Every structure is written in structure tokens, then in C-alpha cells.
TrEMBL record, chain A:
Catalytic activity: ATP + protein L-histidine = ADP + protein N-phospho-L-histidine
Superkingdom to which the source organism belongs: Bacteria
Transmembrane segment boundaries: 62-88, 156-180, 200-222
Listed EC numbers: 2.7.13.3
Name of the molecule in the record: histidine kinase
From TrEMBL, chain B:
Domain spans labelled HTH luxR-type: 146-216
PANTHER family in the cross-refs: TRANSCRIPTIONAL REGULATORY PROTEIN NARL-RELATED (PTHR43214:SF24), TWO-COMPONENT RESPONSE REGULATOR (PTHR43214)
UniProt name for this protein: Response regulator transcription factor
PTM annotation (4-aspartylphosphate): residues: 54
Gene Ontology annotations of biological process type: phosphorelay signal transduction system; regulation of DNA-templated transcription
Transmembrane segments: none
Sequence ranges assigned to domain Response regulatory in this UniProt record: 2-124
Keywords: DNA-binding, Phosphoprotein, Transcription, Transcription regulation
Pfam families: GerE, Response_reg
SUPFAM superfamilies: C-terminal effector domain of the bipartite response regulators, CheY-like
InterPro entries: CheY-like_superfamily (IPR011006), NreC/VraR/RcsB-like_REC (IPR058245), Sig_transdc_resp-reg_C-effctor (IPR016032), Sig_transdc_resp-reg_receiver (IPR001789), Tscrpt_reg_LuxR_C (IPR000792), WalR-like (IPR039420)
Source taxonomy: Bacteria, Bacillati, Actinomycetota, Actinomycetes, Kitasatosporales
Molecular function per GO: DNA binding
Length: 460, 216
């Protein structure tokens, strides 16, 4: 679950890591203002050039898609004569690799996530006839083919615009000043007839304007390209719905299992704890009643024993309730409950809770226990001294950030704690992203889609 | 002594009323947040000397009792409040102590079973003292300990600190630990030095200082 710089983060967590950057840059004081403006200018400039390069790459990619699309069509045409049967599976796989790359690029370049279709039927040991038949029956294959034919026309032409503008602009600015004398009257640059120094200068300026326009347009065009490509690249609605149903069935059955296990644990704790103590209490009381007349001193001892046992029983019940639903969480909600966790922690914990109100109880509970787990990890494994917890709510997402200054290297695959939390959050379509390089620091980002239910009533 | 008692469970309310009356208190019992606040703000002859409050009260069954007590203390600073709760919650203890005026207490409901101790706690809070449940203290102390802030204290000094934080007088601490009062005074001086708290004659302020230090 570690996010390396090259792979896109899972689901909606991508905006989170970028959020510290603007807040860090915001308090720019007067002496550094000009420097930060220069830095912003440089980064915008770099971004424009990068976007331009990506446009160029995407347009070449569209050409490749049309070529492979043509190959697939050829294979289809050749099916009746038999050769197509052999040609079709590799051509379809090549096409899928191209469309996969397009989806990955859309996510990496613009943050637009496009769900992949179901994998192609790939039983390479089956006879060619059966393989081709399975492909022809596969919906994803036909969608790939449709994309290969439409992409060069829709997206390909679109992404070709910025590079073309820049190249034409560069031609106007760098070549026109030297060639107009040789070419004379018949030389036009765009709508400017170039035949004198003045018109040459006009052409030069126009060329610079074209190049600038191409650069400025590039990022927007790249985003537009990803958006126009989505309907072609995404699986059909029925596939998405099926996946959603599978996911829900899966998380529901896991939720049932967790619930059942929890009830069993409660029953066992009650049976072995408070219940047993109450029985012991009754027995001691009985003995005390019997020796009361004959031996008041022993009776007194026994009664004191009863009191100690009753205190232990109360303690057991208290711990049990705290494990089910912590009192502050019930009374005050997530913000104060996390503050209370912070007070109780051995670490130096700073809580920044900016929540509009209460959330549905199961969501609050899941978030609370997730924070508790993350704090315990920071103390036990990371050797952290300071932890910062940020709770925010926006765009229908409850976002919880737990960042420590420990040694990092956390891996959800090794322990059950964070994996369990991730599974619990999954029930709410929530996500857990862990960023914990060796040497630290560790940041746990949790996001749960939910609406804030009631306005804040507590006066604190 | 006039006590306002807020508790929604009939059995407990009845038992507490009886106990307090047996010890010569005048008791006004209420069973929900709004009437608690009203009773706490009564003026003149009806003004309470001390409030004994359950954290969780109707109508919301959340921390209505605590909120009413805090609100009453905002309007009447120094109003003695003893909070009873099923749970030890450092956040609530902190909120009670936040004003720094003292005359507060926070006890687990279990402590009622020792009626002598309970009535003693009510009296100490009414007299302006601070009474914290041993569980609150030990949680705060163990937390401070793990951070290395009071690691320098000897075990005996820690015992003294815990009793001190419960609001005991020097004599009571000496009695509890079976040592002389002058030894207690020596330990306290040493604790205050180690914790870098300027010594003070005021019982209540030294508890607050210790707690404030531990919650840093």
C-alpha cells in the first residue's frame, strides 16, 4: 500500500498528499514574496512544457492505437480464411496494452481515474479457434476496438493542437526572418504575406504568439483529452454495477463476520469476567451470612472481600463498555474523542479537529478506532515522539491524517492492525493510505465518504 | 450544608440522598440537565453549597450533567462541583480543572460504596478543595512517567504525589503512608523542587499545579 511517486494512489486519496504544499507556501512574508512568485512562475513554466511533451506523446499514442486498431480489423477480416484466427489474439492483446497505458496515463497526468475493463479472456493453451471465439464474445474487446478507431479522430486530433501550434510558432519565429528574402512575394505565414522587414516582424510576433498559445493550452488540452477518452476507455455501466455489487456483497459478508466475532467476544468477556465475579460475590455473601453470628471477625473479612470483588466486576464492565463504544465518543463525537485519546497517549499528540458536527455513529466509531490503532502503532513500532492528527470534512469526505516523526517502515502486510482498519473502512467505501518510507516519517491518511449529520451542539 | 444532587437513576439517587441526609446535609435532588442548571443558579437561601453531578443526564443522555456544571461555574465562578461518573475520562477532568479555581472533584461512581469516603469528598470539595479519583491520578501520573517528566521521583515521593493530587492534607497523607507529617512535608518540598513548581501553602493550588504540569 506504499505510494511510490510513480504509481497513482488508490481511489480518492490523491488530493490529500498534495494538500500540505499550499498550506506550507501560504504564509509568505514580504521578503520572500518575490522569490516565491518566481518559484511559482518557474513551476508553471515547467508544467506547461511537460504538458506539451505529454500532448505530443499522446498524439503519437493515438497514431499507434489506430495502427493496432487497423491490424485488429485486418485480423477480423481474415477470420473467414483462417489466418485471422491466429492473428486475432496477439493483436487484441497489443490493443489492450495500449488502452491500459492510456488509462494509466490519464490517472498519472491528470488525476482522472478510469476503471479498467475486465481482463481479456486469455487461455493461450486453447486452440486458436476457441481463443478467437472467446475474444469475439468479449465486450471489452469490442470496446477496445471502438476506442482504437475513435481515439485518433477525437482525442488524437485534440492533443495534436498544442504541439502543432508551438511547432508552427517556432517556424514563424525562427525560420521566417531568414527565408522571406529568398522566397519573395509568394511567401505567406498564416494570414501574413511576408515580403518586407515590417511584415517579417509581424510574422515573428505572430509565431511567438502561436508558440505561447500552444504552451498555455497544453495543460487544459491534456485534461480535456482524458475526459473525452473516459467514455471510450471505461467499462460499460453494467460492468461497473456488477463490480459494485461484488464489492458490496464482499464487504457485507465481512461486516457480518466481524460483528459475529465481536458478539462472541463480548459474550465470552461477560461470562468469564463480570458474571463469574458476581457468582463468586454471591457465594462469599452466603458464607458471610452463615458465619455472621458465630464469627463476626471472619464475616467482616468476607464482606470486605465482597466489596473488592464488586469493584473488580464494575471495572470489568467498564473496560468492556469502553471497548464497544468509548463514552466521550458517545457524548461528544469524534473530535473530542480523539482529543481524549491524545490526552491518554504517552506521546506528544497535537489534534487539529475542524469538523462541522457529528457523523453517523458507525463512521465515528470506525474513525476513532482507526486513529487509536495508528497512535498505538506510532508509540509501539515507530518509536515516535510527536504525532499530529488532523480531522477535516469536505466534499462529502471525512479525512483523518495521522502523521508521526518515527522511524517509518510500516507495512500493513506484516501486522494485522492496519490491515484490519483498512478492511473496516472498506465497509464504508473508505480508504486507508499509508506512506511510511524507511527512516520515517509515517503518514496514515484515512478517508471515509459521509455527510455530517447534525450541527455542533456542544458548547466546547 | 445544602447539596444539589443530579442523578437520573432512581436507585442511586435515592441511596445518595439517604446517605447525604444521614450525614446532616440538606439535599435537593434533580434528574435532568435543565433542572440541574436551574437548581445550581438558585440565589439566596436556596443557593447550593456544593453540587454532586452525574456526567450523563437526560434529556440527551450524553454529557448534559457536566455541561450544566461547567455552565453554572462559568456564571458563578468557584461554585463547588463534585462530578460522579461511570468512567474515568481525563478530558472531562481537564475541563473541570481548566478554570484553576479549585472546588472541583471527579470521582468514579464506585467510590460511593465507601460512604464515609464519599461524604468526606463532598465536604472537601464544598470547602474549596480538589478531589480527583485515584484512577484519574494514576493515569495522568503514569502518562507523565512514560514521558520521563517525573521519572526523577522516588517511589515514596510518587505515593505522596498521588495522595496529594487526591486532595489530601499533609496529616492525611502521613496517616495513609504511616510516616510522620514532617517527612511528608519534606517529600512535598522535594517533589515541588523536582517538578519546578514554586512551593505554596495552598493545598488546592498545589494539586492544580501538579495536574497542570502532568497534562502538558
Amino acid at each position: 500500500m506504499r505510494a511510490t511517486p510513480d504509481t497513482p494512489r488508490p481511489a480518492a486519496s490523491s488530493p490529500a498528499p498534495s494538500s500540505p504544499a499550499p498550506s506550507g507556501a501560504a504564509p509568505s512574508r514580504a521578503p520572500t514574496a518575490s522569490r516565491s512568485r518566481a518559484a511559482a512562475w518557474t513551476s508553471a513554466w515547467t508544467a506547461a512544457w511537460v504538458a506539451l511533451g505529454r500532448c505530443q506523446l499522446a498524439s503519437l499514442h493515438a497514431l499507434a492505437a489506430s495502427a493496432v486498431g487497423a491490424l485488429v480489423s485486418l485480423a477480423l477480416l481474415l477470420v473467414p480464411v483462417g489466418v485471422g484466427l491466429r492473428l486475432l489474439p496477439p493483436a487484441a492483446r497489443a490493443l489492450r496494452r495500449l488502452s491500459d497505458r492510456s488509462r494509466a496515463r490519464a490517472a498519472r497526468w491528470t488525476g482522472l481515474r478510469i476503471d479498467p475493463p475486465d481482463p481479456l479472456p486469455a487461455d493461450r493453451t486453447a486452440p486458436a479457434r476457441r481463443q478467437a471465439g472467446a475474444l469475439l464474445a468479449d465486450d471489452g474487446f469490442w470496446r477496445d476496438l471502438r476506442w482504437a478507431w475513435l481515439e485518433p479522430v477525437t482525442g488524437g486530433l485534440l492533443v495534436a493542437v498544442p504541439p502543432a501550434l508551438v511547432e508552427y510558432g517556432v517556424f514563424g519565429a525562427l525560420v521566417q526572418p531568414f527565408v522571406w528574402r529568398a522566397l519573395g512575394e509568394g511567401n505567406w505565414y498564416a494570414f501574413v504575406p511576408v515580403h518586407s522587414t515590417a511584415t517579417m516582424l509581424a510574422a515573428l510576433l505572430l509565431g511567438l504568439a502561436f508558440a505561447a498559445a500552444g504552451l498555455l493550452l497544453a495543460p487544459a488540452v491534456l485534461r480535456g483529452h482524458a475526459r473525452t477518452g473516459r467514455p471510450l476507455l471505461a467499462p460499460p455501466r453494467s460492468t461497473r454495477l456488477n463490480r459494485r455489487i461484488e464489492h458490496l456483497t464482499d464487504t457485507r459478508s465481512r461486516a457480518h463476520d466481524t460483528l459475529a466475532a465481536e458478539l462472541r467476544r463480548l459474550e465470552r468477556d461477560l461470562h468469564d469476567g463480570a458474571q463469574a465475579r458476581l457468582v463468586a460475590l454471591g457465594m462469599t455473601l452466603d458464607r458471610a451470612t452463615r458465619v455472621l453470628e458465630a464469627d463476626p471477625a471472619t464475616a467482616r473479612e468476607l464482606l470486605l472481600d465482597v466489596r473488592r470483588t464488586s469493584e473488580r466486576a464494575l471495572q470489568d464492565l467498564r473496560d468492556l463498555v469502553r471497548g464497544i463504544h468509548p463514552p466521550v465518543l458517545a457524548d461528544r463525537g469524534l473530535g473530542d474523542a480523539v482529543k481524549s485519546l491524545a490526552l491518554d497517549s504517552f506521546l506528544d499528540v497535537h489534534v487539529d479537529a475542524r469538523l462541522p458536527g457529528r457523523f453517523p455513529a458507525p463512521v465515528e466509531s470506525a474513525a476513532y478506532f482507526a486513529v487509536s490503532e495508528a497512535l498505538a502503532n506510532a508509540a509501539k513500532h515507530a518509536g515516535a515522539r510527536e504525532v499530529r492528527i488532523t480531522l477535516t470534512h469536505g466534499d462529502g469526505l471525512l479525512r483523518v491524517l495521522v502523521a508521526d516523526d518515527g522511524r517509518g517502515g510500516a507495512d500493513p502486510a506484516k501486522g494485522t492492525g492496519l490491515a484490519g482498519v483498512a478492511e473496516r473502512l472498506d465497509t464504508f467505501d473508505g480508504t486507508l493510505a499509508l506512506d511510511s518510507p524507511q527512516g520515517g516519517p509515517t503518514t496514515v491518511t484515512m478517508e471515509i465518504p459521509c455527510a455530517s449529520s447534525s450541527p455542533k451542539t456542544s458548547s466546547c | 450544608m445544602r447539596v444539589v444532587l443530579a442523578e437520573d437513576l432512581f436507585l442511586l439517587r435515592d441511596g445518595l440522598t439517604r446517605t447525604l441526609r444521614e450525614h446532616g446535609c440538606e439535599v435537593v435532588a434533580v434528574d435532568n440537565g435543565p433542572s440541574l442548571l436551574q437548581a445550581l443558579l438558585d440565589e439566596g437561601a436556596a443557593a447550593p453549597d456544593v453540587a454532586v453531578v452525574d456526567v450523563r443526564l437526560p434529556p440527551t443522555f450524553t454529557d448534559e450533567g457536566l455541561q450544566a456544571a461547567l455552565e453554572a461555574r462559568r456564571r458563578r465562578p468557584g461554585l463547588p462541583v463534585l462530578v460522579l461518573s461511570q468512567y474515568v475520562e481525563p478530558l472531562y477532568a481537564n475541563e473541570l480543572l481548566a478554570g484553576g479555581e479549585g472546588a472541583v472533584g471527579y470521582l468514579l461512581k464506585d467510590r460511593i460504596t465507601d460512604t464515609e469516603q464519599f461524604v468526606d469528598a463532598v465536604r472537601r470539595v464544598a470547602a474549596g478543595g480538589t478531589v480527583m479519583d485515584p484512577q484519574v491520578i494514576s493515569r495522568l501520573v503514569s502518562r507523565g512517567d512514560a514521558r520521563g517528566t517525573i521519572g526523577s521521583l522516588t517511589p515514596r515521593e510518587r505515593d505522596v504525589l498521588e495522595l496529594m493530587a487526591e486532595g489530601r492534607s499533609n496529616a492525611a497523607i502521613a496517616n495513609g503512608l504511616h510516616i510522620s507529617e514532617s517527612a511528608v512535608a519534606k517529600h512535598i518540598a522535594s517533589i515541588l523542587t523536582k517538578l519546578r513548581i514554586s512551593p505554596s501553602a495552598d493545598d488546592n493550588r498545589r494539586v492544580l499545579a501538579v495536574l497542570a504540569y502532568l497534562e502538558q
